[in-house]
Amino acid sequence: MMLFVAIVAQFAVGGLTLLGLRRRPANAALIGLVVLASAAAMIVAEGVGVESAPRSRVDWLPALGFNLTLELDGFAVLMALIVLVLGFGVLLYSLAYFEHDATYARFVGLFMAFAGSMTGVVLAADLFTMFVFWELTSICSFLLIGLNDTSESARKSAVRALLTTGAGGLCLLGGVGILQTELGTTTFAELVKLQPSGALIDAAIVLVLLGAFTKSAQFPFHFWLPGAMAAPTPVSAYLHSATMVKAGIVLLARTSPAFGQSDVWRWWVIVAGITTMVIGGWRALRQTDAKLLLAHSTVSQLGLLTVLVGMGTSTALYAGVAHLLAHAVFKVALFLGVGVIDHELGTRDVTKLAAARIRLPFVTSALVASTLSMAGVIPLFGFVTKEKALVALLDAELGLAGSVALVGVVLGSVLSVAYSVRFLHALLGEVAPDGTRGDDQQNGEHHSSTLIARTLLGAPVIVAATASIVFGFAATQIGKWLVAPSTSLDVLAKSKLVLWPGVNDALIISVVVVAVGAVVGWRVPLAVSASPNSLGERMFDAIYDSILSASKKITQVSQPGSLPIYVVVTILVVAVAALVGLLRDGMPSFDAFVTDSPLTVSVALLTAVLTVGVAVVSVRFTAAVFLGGVGYGIAVLFLMRGAPDLALTQVLVETLTIVIFLLAMRSMPRNFIPASKWPPKAVRVLVSVAVGVLLPLVALAVYSARRAPSVSDEYFTRSVDEAGGANVVNVILVDFRGFDTMGEITVLAVAALGVVNLVRVAERNRRERAS
Amino acid sequence: MNFRPSAILDELVDRWLSKVAVLVAVYVTFRGHNAPGGGFAGGLVVGGVFVLQFLTGREPHIRHRPIRRPTLLLGFGLLLALVTTVIPLVVDASPLESHIWKLNVPFIGEVKVVSSMFFDLGVFFVVVAVVLMVLLSLGARGESLVGDDGVGAS
User: Fold this and answer.
1) Which of A666, A671, A739 to mutate to test the interface with B (most CBs of B within 10 A)?
2) Where are the domains of chain A?
């Protein structure tokens, strides 16, 4: 149960912030920090060094096999700690980054909700549970990207991210559905045991992969991630480098031991992964905004992680888990560091970053260390994990797929080094002549950052960068700790990390990669003109716009807004259905006509005459009176056939309806004037007659078609005992079929609200026209 | 067709008929479980009272009576019905399952109360609110039905 408490507590703080603590967001953030820290402590206490992983379960739809199940195995511990510890750091940082206003309150609330959802994703023990939290992360991320809701580009990016990840979420749901119906389970451990295969399973695999690829911004869905950089830096740092995009990797890591041996899986993963790695790296070389450069580097690194985690060999999985940690640590430092520079110097332009090393020496050093880790330079942690990755790729015996993966990753790594070096160039190159001074004077308020604020901003960056260095030197120990997480995914994924592997193939490749990458990176100019929108974004927009305009066209055709057309179409459909039914099953026998007393017959005749009257008179008022007469006539017929309840209600409704008619008629012309020429009179008459003839025939047919005994007999016997009422009609309404009544009164309420608002709008229009 | 509001009719409707009709409505509502009637019919009877007031030019009275905001009444009715639907779930029964209490009221004797009565009351309030809302909005042009721009004018 503790696991659920850890998640719910985060949501609770989020909700509390959004509802109650809007005015004091800093207090809310402090509470959030405490919750994140306690959750992390709880994860360590419950999950580290225990024999069997703690599980907890909440039954949701037990009949369908859908329950929320959480399990704190080794991988969950690692991921939960990444989520919570980085969350702690970023939230601390945000205290100094934001003004303490309503936007900050919204940030804190959504941030906590996001952290809670992400904790759920990493703790999920089955696909269904993961899917639920997965969707929550999509929604929180949408709201966080669009945090600055006055900026159009932020809103657009948020919509792109939501629709892309949302579409992927639907695919994932399809996959969950197939697996649940085919295998009867979606628990990761069971899936690994079953090693399912088959055509349907292949379909499920593709759907699951689409979910993972959209979430983790893999080609061709990579475009939303750089766009998401419209969000404030703490959001980008946390969601779009360290956690949200890792959800897809988590999904791959969880399912790869089950599906990794299938060809469909392997080829999709490798092709998407290396394409993403190369495209991300290439585009990172052409960014002038440091944050966008980092965003594209995230895309590229995610490609590498996808290949490693999804490839399906044990060593690669281990290397993937290790690189996951390395990437989270250096990328959060890089994003937050660029955020500090932006906050203090007011620029993120790579041609002006160099000024930072004078004003912010510590942060700049931290950025340099993290960049070197990203490039994979010894002795940083990034080097260790990248070596492991290369070794895993060299050792993988996967034939062509393995070779493709190796070549792709080497090419991607060259680009990784190149953009890292380009970023270093920006940090360490010569200070631009118009550099700091002009900026400083224009942005005088940036000086106002207090020492405390600077510490809060700088500390997470420096701590994370230090971790990249320390982890590198402590590689052996870290490697031991990572065995539990990776073996909890796949029992065979047992390996180790070392800082100095000795001279081997991987090291030689590494040296060449770094050398080539460094040359390329240093020579790529800092000032380039990047196209504002990527091809992916433009394609997304084109598809999005064409869907919208197509739906508008369909609406114009299917909803012309003409009442006569609606009525004719509706009635014709009913009439045709009735006709088809009658032609198939034969005409009803007229035996069902029970000959009644002359009185009944005369009331029926009178009602019929009144009905004709409604149709032929030309004055509205007269028609309304006739219509009322028809209603009362039917009420009398109800009464004669022994339905006093119906009769009573009919009389009351009829009375009220006439009055309401009269009220509405005050604003209508005296006579009927056809509002439209279409349909012509002949068509109207034809349609009316057809319905008038067909519906009574259907009624007769239905009446004589009974085969099963009537349910009313059962209602009669149960009414008094079970529902305590002698009036069966009423008991049906409030008990046996009470759900129907509930629905009906809801419809009634909605209709009344509709009337009120329509009248109000009409009044307002009239007043506007008058004035 | 231009009725003028008549003082006698006014008096009659307002002082007597309305009150009697409300009593009838309550009676109709509560007897519903065992005899023709029920919340829907009862609500319509109350609606009829409002219509009578409208017809006698008493429309402003509806506005100044306690039920000034029919939407609140609407919400209350829906909520009452919904709560009655959901409460059985709490005690592990199926939704809307009836519970029968038998109470001993002094001087009257045993009174049987069925939980579905509250559902029916919810229906009653919804219907009253719907009639009120429609009457008030369609008649919201400041005059009663029989005012200066009477039926069929324009």
Assistant:
1) A666
2) 260-528, 560-707, 714-771
